[in-house]
Each structure stands twice: as structure tokens, then as C-alpha cells.
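Record pair follows.
FIRST:
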Amino acid sequence: MSKLKKSGISGRFQARYGANVRKKWRLIMERQKSGKIKCPKCESKGYINRISTGIWYCRKCDARFTGGAYYIETPRGAESFRVSKRKQRELEAIEE
């Protein structure tokens, strides 16, 4: 008797397309459908939709913004955001 392996959301592809493609697709779709994506403007969860590649839309505050193809924020974008916030805090400290 063989044991079945749980395949999750990508189980509908069965043996097609290859294991790596199915795994990457599963990770992307689980992250998008989790509803835990925050809007960078209104900070609400569950209102973000992807319009097209890299363009995201918040249904609550009608904000449109750019990001990654499959994720709302890219690692490089997150790094530049942290740097700009730090520089802003430094400038505010100098002005005081």
C-alpha cells in the first residue's frame, strides 16, 4: 500500500509541468491567496489585487502602486524603503 503525498493547491496539475514549476507556482499562489498582504498606504489587509505584472491595486483606498511581478514588495524595494526612512529620520534629528 502506497502513501499519498499532500500536494496542496498545485495538486490539480498532477504529474504535468515538473516538480520545480509546480512548487514555485504553489508558493506564489498560497502567498497571494492568504489575504495577509498589507496596503502600503492604508495598512489594511485583504484588499489588494494584482492588475497586471508589477501593478497592484487597493480596493479600500483606491491606491495603485508598483511592486514585484508576483509579490507586492521586492527585496530591493524593501531595502530602498528602509534606507530612505533612515535618511529621513537622520534629517529630522539634524533639524531639531
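SECOND:
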Amino acid sequence: MHFSYAIEKGLNVFMEKPVTADGPTSKRMLKLAEDASARKLKVGVGLMSRHSRALQELANRVHDGAIGDIILQRGYRMHAPGGYFLSLPKPAGISDLLYQVQRFHSYIWASGGNFSDSYIHILDHLAWMKNAWPVRAQAVGGRHYRQGPEGITYVDQNFDVHSVEYTYADGTKFYFDGRCMAGYQQIYAQLPARHQRNGDRFQERRLRDALQPVQEPIAVACRHGLGI
């Protein structure tokens, strides 16, 4: 709704992810993106790595064959609960709708949950390096810790473990493991493997101002009429 309005008014847009929570909405957003491009509007999304000059250079080298053909990818995101990953029962004095909108990370309909918000970065990084999107996914997941320290059961819809096997059109596999639990080792890594020898790990280094790489190219593009 907001994106449609911005396009109608001829406004440049920066939108934070997760942008959509389901397939039909994603298709509508892609169509709106085409409309925005046809009107020469600038649109950016909060997948900040795409705007990192260092990762852009890395992607260019990988695409140019610097490490050979990628034949396997592995991604890991192990972290503690953040944002509104966990939600206790709704308190009195607030509607169900408002409570869920406020705590959008907890509800699949509102955000796609923790997977769409946190793990999308790993999928984005490795698909970017592969220069393709997976065509199939097979996954399992579950929830181990459902109660808070006070013994109250959480009502959010998130899993705290995920494992996904992605397959690209050429048969290449990408294995992802995610865990969202307090008190465990934190890992944020993506590893592509190439022919002949195991390959080259790259890991995003968070900048002090993580949104700066996104804001700068969009601002420059808007100011000078350039592409993003």
C-alpha cells in the first residue's frame, strides 16, 4: 500500500526488510518494483551488504571466476533472540491486532518471522555470490525453548532452530543452519566451496553505522540521477 502510494506520487523509496511475508505479496512487490523502475524512481531495501563496496568487489571477482565454479555453499546464523523474537501472552488493554503489529517479529503474517528478518542476509549473500537464486528448498525446524525464566509460555510463532537444503538450477547445493537461543556460541558466516580445494570464507564485518552503506548510494543516485 505504501509503496504503491509512493510510486503514484513519484517518490524515491527506502524500505526496510522484511518487505513481504508470503509469495503472492512478493509477486505484487516485484511488479511494483518494475513500475518504479519504469518511472526512473530510486528504490532501496535494507539488505545493506548489497551496498557494501567491499562485498560488491568480492561479488565481481567471484562472478569473473577468481575462485572457480562454486559447487557447494554453507551458511550459518547462530544468535541470541533479539527484537521481538519472543512474545509473552497479550496484556490487557490492547487489541490482538495492535499487539501483533507492535511485535511483528513474532508473527508470521506480519513479517515472516525470524527467518525472514535475520536469515535472509545469509541467503542474500550466497545467492549473490552464486549469481542465481535457488529453485528448490527442503527444510526442517522446531522450537526447543518455549517458556521464559518465569515459567510463562511464549505465544510467538518462531522456531529457534532451522535447517534448509537449497538447490540451484544447475544442481549446486546450499546448506543453511540457523539457531536463535540465548547462551550459545554466536556464528555469522557464509562459505562457498569451489573445485579442487575448499574455498574461501567471507564474513560480513558490521560497520559502526550499519545503514550507512545503504543510505549513501541511494542519496547519491537521487541527487545525480544515477542508477543504484
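COMMENT: The first helix runs from residue 2 to 9.
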